[in-house]
Design brief:
It contains seven helices and seven strands; from the N terminus they run βαβαββαβαβααβα. By secondary structure, it is α/β, with parallel strands linked by helices. The chain has a single domain, classed as 3-Layer(aba) Sandwich (Rossmann fold).
Length: 179
């Protein structure tokens, strides 16, 4: 069975977006691409002031609380509803570790999911972060390994060693092989 969902988990500037863009181009049929940044961008400007919200620290740290978890859970259920009809590539960073993956597992229950770890060395992610100029400094280094701690994957790709199209080809092959 072709997976309903491909979940790409990686830290900031790990290459998830470039990989996802190539992946939806390579996969057969229509695949939607959904990114946790879309959820974050949809939050009200003062959400960092909401108790239990989402706070991006000046040092690149990210803190989330119960209110963010509530909003994120609703978003996850929405993604699952879409994925039941149209396959989805999800870009995320499991800032809450295995708890985050378990929340996705619960939301995606009944759907076939391919779990992909998107890795690169912290130095590579940090260089990408500096080149982009649209991220808080230190976020990429802080998340490079932290988002992978305790997470189980079907497949991992190193975007420091592979181009986005080569990494996407590896993931696309794994999707096709599951049919």
């Amino acid at each position: 069975m072709v997976p309903h969902v491909v979940v790409l988990n990686g830290g900031s500037s790990s290459g998830k977006s470039s990989l996802a863009g190539e992946l939806v181009r390579l996969l057969p049929g229509t695949w939607l691409r959904l990114n946790v940044d879309t959820l974050i961008d949809a939050l009200p400007p003062a959400f960092d002031e909401v108790e239990g919200g989402l706070v991006l620290g000046l040092d690149g740290s990210v803190s989330t609380g119960p209110e963010f978890a509530r909003v994120e859970s609703a978003w996850m259920r929405g993604v699952a509803t879409i994925a039941a009809e149209v396959p989805v590539v999800v870009e995320d960073g499991f800032l809450s570790g295995p708890v985050g993956q378990e929340r996705w597992r619960e939301a995606l229950a009944g759907l076939d999911v391919l779990w992909v770890g998107v890795r690169c060395a912290a130095d590579v992610a940090e260089a990408r972060e500096r080149a982009r100029g649209d991220r808080i400094g230190g976020m990429a280094r802080a998340q490079a390994e932290a988002v992978h701690a305790g997470i189980g994957y079907d497949l991992e790709v190193d975007t420091g060693a592979l181009s986005p199209d080569a990494a996407a080809a590896v993931v696309a092959s794994a999707v096709v092989d599951r049919t």
